[in-house]
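Structure representation:
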Amino acid sequence: MVTEIAYCGLTCTECPAYIAKLTNDQNIREKTAMEWSKGNLKVSAEQINCDGCHARKNIFIYCENCDIRQCGLEKEITTCAECSEYPCSEKLKQFWQQFNLPHAKTTLDDLHNSMV
C-alpha cells in the first residue's frame, strides 16, 4: 500500500477511518466511533469510512469539510508542504496543536525541507 499524506500532514493510510473502509472492518468502525465521540462531537460507526484526503468522495465528514483540505484542493497541491506560503496560517498550526499532532507537522516540515 502506498502511503498517502493528507494536506495537513496526517498519514491517511494509518487512519482508522481509511483502514476500516479499505478492509470493511465493522469492529474498527465501532471502536473508532466511540473513541472519536467526545463532548459535542458525536461520530457514528457508519461515518467511519474514508478513501483519504485526496479522494473526491467517501471522505470522513469532518475531513470533507476541513478548511485545510479545501485550501489544498483550491491550490491544486498534494500537501501543504508544497505551498509557497507554508506554514501558511494559524489554521494549520491550531489544528496541529488542538489535536496534539506534532507528527503531522514533522511530516510536512520534512516534505517541505526536501523540496527547497
About this structure: Residues 2 and 13 are 8 Å apart (CA to CA). The helical segments are 16-23, 26-36, 61-64, 67-75, 90-98, 102-115.
